[in-house]
Prior knowledge:
Blueprint: H1 8-11, H2 13-43, H3 54-81, H4 86-113, H5 119-143, H6 148-164, H7 171-189
Helix pairs in contact: 2-3, 2-7, 3-4, 3-7, 4-5, 5-6, 6-7
Amino acid sequence: MTLPLKGVGYGGAGMSSQMVRWGGLAGLAAAVVFLVAAIVNLISPYQRGTFDSFSDYLYQPLVTVAFALIAVAIAGLHALQSGRYGRWGTAGASMAFVGYAIIVVVAAATLLAGADVLLSVRFVGAAAILVGSIVLGLMTIRAGILPWWCGVLIIVGFPLGDFSNAVIRGGEGIVLAIVWGLVVWALLSRSGTPEEQPSRAS
């Protein structure tokens, strides 16, 4: 499965530039929502699989929306770089996009059921995000449109966020807010100059 934006950088500069801006704004919104979710988790810790307080029912929708916004941000990254990072970049962006979409569906189903559901599907989504982010990050570095550290953040953001939960309550939201806030800041700085050069990766 590939993103519907594949190749838009070649012939639709206006559409591509608009998608980049929307992706950047979505990423900024995701950063804010992740911070709010982290604060909610710090005030009233969310225990996975249990919904017995108002904060539990507040936290889950927040992270669901945040992950959906990240998927839009990835579409914006793809719109900016699709003419430069080739098939591998498209594959990485598509895999990460699908992975986040799966996580959104599972999170929404969990909220509706009032308990953890579709855990095996969640693992599939997480694996798709992990692999897709690594490929997307590497191809972002290679394309050279965004600063190299954007690619590094894309690679380490998801696993670092998951690990940080073991260190500090709400750590995942804080890490992902920082990661995507920085990445989309760089993305928005390039939103007016979408690349239309031939692919450098295959």
